[in-house]
Amino acid sequence: MHTKTNGQETSSEKKVLDNSQQRFAGGFLDRFSILPTSTMASAAFREKLPFALYVGSLIINVLALALPLALLQIYDRIIPNEALDTLSILMGGLVIALLIDGVFKAARAHLVAWHAARMEHKLNVAAVDCILQTPASALEEQEAGAVMDQINAVQTLREFEGGQSRLLILDLPFVLMFLGLVWVIGGPIVAVPIIMFGLLAIATLITGKAQRAVLKDRAQLDDRRYSFVIETLTGIHSIKAMSMEPQMQRRYDRLLASAAEVSYRTISLGGVAQAFGNSFSSLT
Fold this sequence. Notes:
Layout: H1 2-25, H2 39-46, H3 51-63, H4 66-81, H5 84-133, H6 136-140, H7 144-161, H8 164-171, H9 175-186, H10 191-234, H11 236-241, H12 245-283
Helix pairs in contact: 2-5, 3-5, 4-5, 5-7, 7-10, 10-12
């Protein structure tokens, strides 16, 4: 009976340990495939953007048509007919539209920042809860640098949720509206921006795939570097006692050399992507 009880306890402990390992090592905050497993983190990711953001994006993109339509009216009607009174009214309406556009953009930026800050708070709470609820034996199997890197990934998420990339995703569906306007005004000319969008999408897919591979290598090197620094600080007395400073310095130099190479590749790919984007903006 005693043996059976011990076996049951051992099996139960093993089950708890396996679940904790899956919860922690399986990717609470994986840098590239973010699949939070705790209840709070899952709730944070399921939280939708405020409906006001979608309404604001719609109004902003509609108001963005004010300037090109005003220029079209000026060249097609006002200048040939010398209609100065109409020009004054048109300019007044354009100024009002631009002011409203600025107000809505500021309000949208505020809402996005609030949403990102709220998500960051919930994920940080969930991250600490995940660590505290994980058995020590499971934590010991993880490198300290990897744990720190996973926690720091919350900041990366917050920067994305509150940055220009998030706003770009909100505005992306309205590209169809602009293409429709070009088609109504210019007819076959709409093929030009469509082709440009296609070329940009292909270039983005190619550079994005390369960037994901480079960022994965960089994350692994950062994990090793963080772990090295933490281990060095933890065992600094032993390092001093055994005069191992030169060996530790050479080891860190090798880590930095590898990190510098990966950083160069990351910056190069980022520059290529930015160059494609700038060229696209100039052509359109």
